[in-house]
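Appendix B. Extra example for self-study. Work through it before the problem class; the solution is given directly after the inputs so you can check yourself.
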Amino acid sequence: MICAGIDAGSRTTKVVLLDGDGCDVVAAGVVDQGIEQDALAESLLDRLLRERRIGRKQLGMVVATGYGRKLISSADSTITEITCQAWGVRRAMPEVRTIIDIGGQDSKLLRLHPNGTVGDFVMNDRCAAGTGRFLELLATRLGVRLARLGELAGCSRDAAVISSMCVVFAETEIIGLLASGVLPEDIVAGVQASLATRVAAMTGSNVTAPVVFTGGVAMVPGMEAALSVAIGQTLSVAPQPQLTCALGAATLAWGRLNGQSTPT
Amino acid sequence: MNDQPQRITLAEWDSRYAQLRAGGLTEPDYGGPLGRHVADGDVRLLKLRMDNSPAALRLWNFLLSEEDRLHRSAAEGKKLVGTMKDLGTVPVMAYSLDNLVAFYPDGAWWLPCLLGGGAGLLEIADSLGIDDSFCPVRALLGAFVAQSRFPIPGLLTCSVGATCDDFSAIAQRLESLGFPIVWWEIPHRRPPDAEEEAVELPGGFRAPAGQVAFVRSELGGVREALEAYAEQPLDDRRLAEGIARANRVRRLLADLRQLCFTADPCPLPALEMLIAEMLAIHFCSDHNETIHVLAGLLEEARRRADAHVGVLPADAVRLFWVNPVADLRVMNLLEDVGGRVCGADNMFCHALDPIPTDLPPLEALARMALADPMVGSAVERAGRICAEVQRFGARGVVISRIPGASHCAMEATIIADVIRGTLDVPAIEIEVPPLTDAIEPTLRTRLEALIEMVRVGRGIGDWGFRIAASHRPLTTSHYFP
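Solution. Structure tokens for the complete assembly:
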């Protein structure tokens, strides 16, 4: 039987399918989020099943996670993104003790016990300054694609200082910096540093290595370096960092299908 | 009639009420169907799930009829005292005099929740320069100015100093509007120096004898103000009788807490327990009725515990709750996601401790006032919380912040760190505004995640790491096709 994890996030929906041994990912995909969250998730799930020539009847268990998890009609159960993220990361990187996850509209820090269970977590979902939304706004303001931000930041020789703690006011600062002739690459580097600093403030001083970086923002070039500087530690980006949470959900679905108790 | 304990909606309460009445339910004069309070503006009730017992009905009606009770007391010639910020000291003194009725104007902090918004009260506070950077208790300014909620008391007292800077600012603004206040100061409680005489306080705290003497002196000033207002002497005999009556309430609450926080399954919901605890502060303006209400709840809880029935599943996760919530709905939410409250520190634990009876009454009250968890350090408060977490066997802790309130900007973080470091129990912080509808998904995620952490922590999730041992962890190369 196949198990599915659906991560209905605030910006994208992700699906991961695990095989009958719970050990191989047989398909994975991402679509942008929309108003019809359930329909989008179902459509993506159907497409992945079709591409792999897997019938719906072979789908043994579905666990939904993420902000929109309660809306996913095909889910057999729901588990929070906190738990799923930890389990997804542990599948690929069992030694990890700290996860920093920056998504489109929130950011979180998870501290893991040596046995991999979540010790505690901190979340920011009230302030866009520590989330991918800040980068989206920057890209829009500069008229470049998100993927180009890292390339631009790499060209910076003198990162601008973004002093505002609020994205709305930071945008005003960006406009002012552009008007003052500050180079776009220096503004990008400044915004990345500002975002990383916000997240580092949330983590406090107690960040246990090894640290892994997940979430869509982990795929933006330059953010890994900015975050590493901000927390004063080396960190690594998880393989497919946008999909780890869905992988965790699929793993928990596999466990439930095989008669294991799960944390719901 | 279904008498199984459960949490029911207001609509369900309407039919439940009719059934109870048909079955012979007798009520006090403030009784009646809960739905009538919605007509009075308490629309948040429509979003709550409440306990279905007659005892809970009486509790809710008692709480929601306080304004009527105050108006009636004033009409009967009783003298009203507004005891602000103080959590459980001056009301004990006021109720020692037979012609005074004390109430807690700060209770207006729940109005933005109950009324489903500010109902104009917050806008009045805004116009007075007390904006939403302050605690929701600022609604009391609107209540005083509009004179639409409670009768204006002839005497106002307010504790100030180490209590709450937000509230001090709000109360000072109130005084500037022509509402004179009798202020009494409470210092920041500190551990005695080595050479200082130390005094044991309720709750296990200690303070220098000099601080206790200072608070006693301040309360002496309050006593004089109460005597002048009541035109009666407030001698030690009367005070001792008042303390004995207050202790009766506290004993009932202690029994109720012990039973409801330890029995399986949970006999009473968290929402009703929160409101029951609040009665300790000022007796909801009727000391005797408070005793009846609490006795009824305790009897119901005992009946349920003896029958091994409760309002929540037996596997509900045992959590300790820190600070009262500005939106009552959140207590429902905690239970909706699989938790139950086993212990709470709602900022006034000292009002739940017995007042010493082997001391001169004012000395006893001074010691009790100085045991307020909010006037000491956050670390001391965390220490008491840790002891309570252990006492009630809680497996996780929720620290609920109040937007705008600033007893200590870092208090929640300090408490969480102490809990994690001392007990190895997970603790999370949340912030609860008066209406949480828009942020309910994020609150739900935090609470659910805590419950998942506790469940995994007690072994349910061990299998996942047996997988890791028996199967190769996924590697990048075969991670995704």
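Self-check: The interface with chain B takes residues 21-28, 67, 70, 79-83, 87, 90-94, 106, 115-123, 125-126, 239-240, 243, 247, 251-252, 255, 260-264 of chain A (CB under 8 Å). If your reasoning did not lead you there, revisit section 3.
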